[in-house]
């Protein structure tokens, strides 16, 4: 199967066997049951001309999730439909994007502008035990800066004057965490590798354009 793109858009009047799959579904509600469940397993693949060779290959066209509930039919109700599946990429339309959530954040660092010791250190540890601890010198130390969301409450000088002005939360611009969540079609690792390949291709294209650009030095006006 090939992707549809801007040069080869999907055409539902002349179905392209290289880019389109067709499924038929016929179902009828049982007369002796209040409702009849229709699942995705009821979809039947209809090979287009040129796809006949795929019939013998069980791994070529199949339903990934045959147990998806499509609808419920009452007694005697009938359903007949034809579904057309096309393979696209997110650059054409977001509905084909395999990523549901993709974002990055700079690593958070927490430091003490002044030492926090004694009773104040133990109070800070009780407030945020996942972030702070107390060492053998009875001084507060940071054990995990990634759990910083609860620390924000500790910065209130009206509530914790003993240490609120001694804690600094900063962003480390030299370290970035990248988060990628897949919708299920493709593993996150494969999406990330493909994204790096596309990024490298665009960098090479940009480099080629820059190298082919003619430079015309400007002449300084004569005085």
TrEMBL record:
<dbReference type="GO" id="GO:0046983">
    <property type="term" value="F:protein dimerization activity"/>
</dbReference>
<comment type="function">
    <text>DNA-dependent RNA polymerase catalyzes the transcription of DNA into RNA using the four ribonucleoside triphosphates as substrates.</text>
</comment>
<dbReference type="GO" id="GO:0006351">
    <property type="term" value="P:DNA-templated transcription"/>
</dbReference>
<dbReference type="GO" id="GO:0003899">
    <property type="term" value="F:DNA-directed RNA polymerase activity"/>
</dbReference>
<dbReference type="GO" id="GO:0005666">
    <property type="term" value="C:RNA polymerase III complex"/>
</dbReference>
<dbReference type="InterPro" id="IPR011262">
    <property type="entry name" value="DNA-dir_RNA_pol_insert"/>
</dbReference>
<keyword id="KW-0804">Transcription</keyword>
<keyword id="KW-0240">DNA-directed RNA polymerase</keyword>
<dbReference type="InterPro" id="IPR050518">
    <property type="entry name" value="Rpo3/RPB3_RNA_Pol_subunit"/>
</dbReference>
<dbReference type="InterPro" id="IPR011263">
    <property type="entry name" value="DNA-dir_RNA_pol_RpoA/D/Rpb3"/>
</dbReference>
<dbReference type="InterPro" id="IPR036603">
    <property type="entry name" value="RBP11-like"/>
</dbReference>
<dbReference type="GO" id="GO:0005736">
    <property type="term" value="C:RNA polymerase I complex"/>
</dbReference>
<dbReference type="Pfam" id="PF01000">
    <property type="entry name" value="RNA_pol_A_bac"/>
</dbReference>
<dbReference type="InterPro" id="IPR036643">
    <property type="entry name" value="RNApol_insert_sf"/>
</dbReference>
<comment type="subunit">
    <text>In plastids the minimal PEP RNA polymerase catalytic core is composed of four subunits: alpha, beta, beta', and beta''. When a (nuclear-encoded) sigma factor is associated with the core the holoenzyme is formed, which can initiate transcription.</text>
</comment>
<feature type="domain" description="DNA-directed RNA polymerase RpoA/D/Rpb3-type">
    <location>
        <begin position="3"/>
        <end position="209"/>
    </location>
</feature>
<protein>
    <recommendedName>
        <fullName>Plastid-encoded RNA polymerase subunit alpha</fullName>
    </recommendedName>
</protein>
């Amino acid at each position: 199967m090939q992707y549809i793109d801007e040069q080869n858009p999907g055409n539902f009047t002349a179905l392209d066997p290289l880019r389109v799959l067709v499924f038929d579904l016929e179902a009828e509600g049982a007369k002796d049951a209040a409702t009849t469940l229709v699942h995705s397993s009821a979809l039947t693949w209809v090979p287009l001309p040129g796809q006949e060779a795929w019939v013998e290959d069980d791994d070529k066209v199949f339903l990934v999730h045959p147990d998806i509930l499509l609808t419920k039919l009452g007694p005697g109700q009938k359903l007949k439909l034809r579904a057309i599946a096309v393979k696209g990429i997110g650059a054409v339309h977001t509905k084909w994007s395999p990523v549901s959530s993709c974002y990055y954040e700079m690593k958070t660092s927490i430091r003490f502008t002044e030492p926090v010791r004694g009773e104040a250190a133990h109070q800070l540890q009780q407030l945020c035990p996942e972030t702070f601890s107390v060492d053998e010198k009875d001084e507060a130390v940071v054990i995990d800066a990634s759990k910083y969301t609860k620390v924000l409450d500790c910065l209130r000088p009206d509530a914790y004057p003993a240490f609120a002005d001694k804690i600094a939360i900063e962003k480390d611009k030299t370290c970035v965490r990248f988060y990628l969540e897949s919708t299920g079609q493709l593993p996150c690792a494969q999406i990330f590798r493909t994204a790096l390949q596309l990024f490298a291709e665009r960098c090479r294209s940009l480099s080629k354009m820059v190298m082919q650009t003619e430079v015309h030095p400007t002449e300084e006006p004569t005085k």
